Amino acid sequence: MAIMVRIPTPLRRFTNGSDEVGTAGSTIGAVVDNLEQSFPGIKDRLCDEEGRVRRFVNIYVNGDDIRFLSNLDTPVKDGDEVSIVPAIAGG
Amino acid sequence: MQASSGIAEPHDSAAPTPESPRPARAHSVLDLVGQTPLVEIARLAHSFRTREGKAISPNVRLYAKLEGLNPGGSVKDRPALWMIRAGLRTGKLVSGKTILDSTSGNTGIALAMIGAALGYPVELVMPANVSRERKRIISAYGARIRYSDPLEGSDGAIRVCRQVLAEAPERYFKPDQYFNPQNPQAHYESTGPEIWRATGGSVTHFLAGIGTGGTVMGTGRYLKERHPQVQVIAVEPDDALHGLEGLKHMASSIVPGIYHEQELDRKIGVGTDDAYETVYRLGAEEGLVVGQSSGAALWAALHVAAEVDQGVIVVIFPDFGDKYLSTNLWLGWRDWHESLRRRA
User: Fold this and answer.
1) Among B299, B183, B176, residue whose Cα is nearest residue B237
2) Model pTM?
3) pLDDT digits (tens, 9 = 90+) for B185-239
4) Residue B180 covered by a domain
């Protein structure tokens, strides 16, 4: 069993069009690093130069915003669902 | 409105258009749509420097058109009103029908307001992640909201809306802001003439963000008809994943039918962080708390202003910032403010 990550439309060009990908990791930070291994370039879209989640990106673990948990240190386990949601709704 | 003495001389072809100020007493809230003022962005323009250190010439004047002063709080009151009036005129919107559309917010607010004022029910499809304030305002106007998947963005809302319509086409009137020619027409008939009049025909550059493209297309078309040398510049996010609510990154979006890129002189991509910082500066240095699309448009306008020796630049500020106070726009404000304090 893996951690499933839901990918928003603007990032699917990195995931060959997939709206959901399986990955591993014990924290959100590790999940993001593993996504970068599989889909080079995606981390730069999610995190700024200092490694923090960009302020227009929201990441949820089972529906909870990691900003209200422990940000990139938020623990995750197999079976969790991680959603990457743009902070805005588009045009 | 008279052009202030600081504005450059009108173009030769400028013929004044008749004044029609906002009424002091109105029969309906709908009579208050349009006739928004220009305000000069002087302090920020004076202190602005490009990354290469270039300043803006004192012969360049930069004005923002404050669309937040429309009764629904945004530029979208104009296209919404034009589309609804056209629906009534052509008999497509009749008693018993519901107004239906997909929107990320401001058009929804405008349609909800107009529907309430005219007595038509309104149903809107929007991504579930639009700001809480927008959802509440729309509900306050009595409109019904259907939420679409936030991961699919505004294109997801467009698709859900098409499904809802396909299931019961006889029930609905869909203004369809992305394809309705009344959207740019509203700006051709109102925003464009207002800018021409307010600048005494001296406008040299016009900038607006692209959401549907209605503002930049319609206003630009009018201004170019009055004077073909007016530069019409569209502003868009610099990447598909961005934080500029209301704006569309064209290369990765369903391209609106009303959007014709060949009519533009130029398109400028703006980064989310640059736009947010411009919003913070507008609050602290100009006394204008606006939305992120205004910050993006002004960032682009400041760079255009630094390129020219003289000119009158008009940029659209689509709304004020009160609808975004709960959003990620303000996440970085404290850091920014802190960094300013340290520098001082």
Assistant:
1) B299
2) 0.91
3) 999 999 999 999 999 999 999 999 999 999 999 999 999 999 999 999 999 999 9
4) no
Residue B145's H or E segment, with its range, is: strand B144-148
* Domain encompassing residue B260: 29-71+187-343
Which pLDDT tens digit goes with each residue over B243-291?
898 888 888 877 889 999 999 999 999 999 999 999 999 999 999 999 9
Distance from CA of A47 to the nearest CA of B (A): 12
User: Could you tell me if B157 and B89 lie in one domain?
Assistant: yes
Residue at which a domain ends, from B173, B200, B226: B173
From the list A7, A56, A89, the residue facing B104 with the nearest CB is A89
Residue A91 lies in a domain: no
Residue A9: which domain range?
3-86
| Domain CATH number, residue B224 | 3.40.50.1100
Provide the mean pLDDT of chain B: 91
Which residue in A19, A87, A89 is closest to B154 by CB distance?
A89
- Interface probe for B, chosen from A11, A21, A56 (most Cβ of B below 10 Å), is A56
Coil vs helix vs strand at B125: strand
**B42 and B95 together in one domain:** no
DSSP B254: P
pLDDT for B325: 87
Q: What is the ipTM of this complex?
A: 0.85
For chain A, helix, strand, coil in percent to 5 are 25, 25, 45
Report the domain count for chain B: 2
CB–CB contacts below 8 A, A to B: 99
DSSP 3-state of B38: strand
